[in-house]
Write a structure and sequence with these properties.
This protein has 1 helix and 16 strands. With about 350 residues, it is mainly beta. A 16-stranded antiparallel sheet has the order 1-2-3-4-5-6-7-8-9-10-11-12-13-14-15-16, with no helix packed on it. The longest helix is centred in the N-terminal third of the chain and has 14 residues. The protein is globular and about 60 Å long.
Length: about 350
């Protein structure tokens, strides 16, 4: 009976979608020190329901699966949906990861510090609900469910002792809220406008979470376009974590500085400033999908706010190119290579870095 109900629901959804269904799928290949050789596929699709007004943005769906030479596997499913009246947006991410990687301990440590190998297995669901107040202001509702287990650790490492928060199997359930001011002319590839966002997330035993802590996030971004197809984008963001949290959920500088491995430089608080110069220089139908960027990323992680220091800021710089999957809204596949005095890194991803 359950199977019959599911079939009926799926059929009714498919039947209500317009005949025009845009879909694109691309192979992924890259190399980075923390992943080794990576191969995978990423698929993007757009569709709209038959009775939706023309001014409502199209529904979007992203599916990504990757496997690396270090036996890392990741599967991600991301629906991005709008309601018929345009008042609500739902951005959801479902992810499963089996990921051998390295633990660099918590702190703004030396890049060459000794690391510890471990393998994590995790499931996560993130939901962001946006409620439009007017054309520029939105209320945010946030929810997260996160489950993690270390499948493998080094026999003589510190993670096997389970004294580090997050080294034991745990579950997180968080609820939060936020406020967003958004005047960007596009959510996928803005060329003008501002984005200011404040988010509050709380994790508590009352929700069924194994940890009690609060995370505050603040983002401010601005976009300029002085010449057609040339864009200067700047962004700063801060994350403050209050109380003890698992190390997997602490902000990571390596996740935002493109020259570094993702999990390096982890701490309770982070400040990041980034700038990009973006250009799509070609006008011909053959080459208008191809664009280029130059970027600089900088930031710092600390345990206390008073520890922030200009002398401790780390920087990375680099460039890359873009390939527009859907040219009408510049939804791009990005290829970036970042450099710093300690390291260099190459990554492929969907959508802009900010």
């Amino acid at each position: 009976m359950r199977i019959l109900c599911i079939i009926v629901i799926l059929f009714s959804c498919i039947n209500s979608i317009e005949a025009k269904f845009n879909i694109a799928a691309y192979p992924q290949f890259s190399y980075a020190e923390d992943t080794g050789f990576l191969a995978g596929v990423i698929s993007y699709s757009r569709f709209q329901f038959k009775d939706y007004p023309e001014d409502i943005p199209k529904q979007k769906l992203t599916i990504q699966a990757v496997y690396t030479s270090k036996k890392q596997f990741s599967l991600r499913f991301e629906p991005f949906l709008f309601t018929k009246n345009g008042l609500y947006e739902f951005e959801t991410e479902f992810e499963y990861k089996y990921f051998p990687t390295e633990f660099y301990e918590v702190g703004n440590t030396n890049f060459n510090a000794e690391s510890e190998k471990y393998t994590s297995k995790r499931y996560s669901i993130d939901l962001i609900m946006k409620r439009k107040i007017n054309e520029s202001w939105f209320l945010l509702g946030l929810a997260e469910m996160y489950r993690s287990k270390l499948a493998k650790t080094e026999a003589d490492g510190i993670l096997v002792e389970q004294s580090t928060p997050g080294s034991e199997p745990f579950s997180l359930i968080g609820l939060g809220a936020g406020l967003m001011y958004d005047t960007r002319n596009s959510a996928t590839y803005p060329t003008n406008g501002d984005l200011v966002k404040f988010e509050f997330n709380g994790y508590n035993n009352l929700f069924g979470s194994d940890y009690n802590y609060v995370q505050l996030r603040f983002v401010a971004s601005k976009y300029f376009s002085f010449i057609d197809n040339h864009v200067l984008a700047i962004s700063s963001n801060m994350i403050f974590t209050d109380n003890i949290a698992p190390f997997q959920k602490l902000p990571q500088l390596g996740d935002q500085l493109r020259a570094y491995p993702d999990e390096i430089f982890t701490n309770e608080k982070i400040y990041v400033f980034r700038a990009e110069y973006r250009v799509f220089p070609f006008s011909s139908k053959v080459l208008d999908r191809l664009g280029f960027v130059l970027f600089i990323d900088s930031g710092e992680v600390v345990s206390e706010v008073e520890d922030f220091s200009i002398s401790s800021i780390r920087c990375s710089y680099g460039g890359g190119f873009r390939f527009s999957i859907f040219t009408d809204e510049r939804f791009n596949l990005r290829f970036d290579i970042g450099f710093c005095k300690d390291h260099q890194n190459f990554e492929i991803s969907g959508g802009e870095a900010f």
